[in-house]
Write a structure and sequence with these properties.
alpha+beta, three-stranded antiparallel sheet, 4 helices, globular
C-alpha cells in the first residue's frame, strides 16, 4: 500500500467580536476566562474554541475550555496544551497535528484549527497532550 502525506480529518472554526470579549473581560476579569489581560485575548479565546471544534468534542468535553491552553506570545506561533478531560479525549481522536490560523480585522477575530492525520502510530496516553503549531 503506498504511503500518503497527512490528510485533513476535521476543521474547526470560531469567530468572536473582539470588543464584546473585551467588555466581558472588563466586567468579570481576565481570570474568568483564564486569558492574559491586554491584547491577544480574543485571538487566544478563538484559537481555543476552534481547537475544541476540530476535535469534535462532545458537550461534556467542549465545556472544559479551561483544559485547553495556548503557550506562546500574542503574535504566535502557539503551542496547544490539552489537560485533564480534554487531553484524555484528544488521545482518542488525535493522530497527527492541529494547524492553527487566525484572521483579524474590523473588530472581529476568526480562528481555524485544522486537524490532520499523521502517518505515525497513535500517541501514548498521558494526562497532558501538547500539540505544537
Amino acid at each position: 500500500m503506498p504511503e500518503h502525506g497527512p490528510s485533513v480529518l476535521r476543521i474547526g472554526s470560531y469567530g468572536v467580536d473582539a470588543d464584546a470579549l473585551d467588555r466581558l473581560i472588563a466586567r468579570h476579569g481576565a481570570k474568568a476566562l483564564e486569558l492574559p489581560a491586554g491584547g491577544g485575548s480574543a485571538v487566544r479565546w478563538a484559537l481555543r474554541q476552534a481547537a475544541l471544534r476540530a476535535l469534535a468534542a462532545p458537550p461534556r468535553v467542549a465545556g472544559r475550555w479551561r483544559d485547553v491552553d495556548l503557550l506562546g506570545t500574542d503574535g504566535g506561533p502557539y503551542t496547544l496544551v490539552f489537560r485533564g478531560e480534554v487531553a484524555r479525549f484528544a488521545e482518542t481522536v488525535l493522530r497527527g497535528d492541529i494547524s492553527l490560523s487566525v484572521t483579524t480585522g474590523a473588530g472581529r477575530v476568526t480562528a481555524h484549527a485544522v486537524m490532520t492525520r499523521g502517518s505515525g502510530p497513535a500517541r501514548p496516553s498521558h494526562e497532558e497532550t501538547e500539540v505544537c503549531r
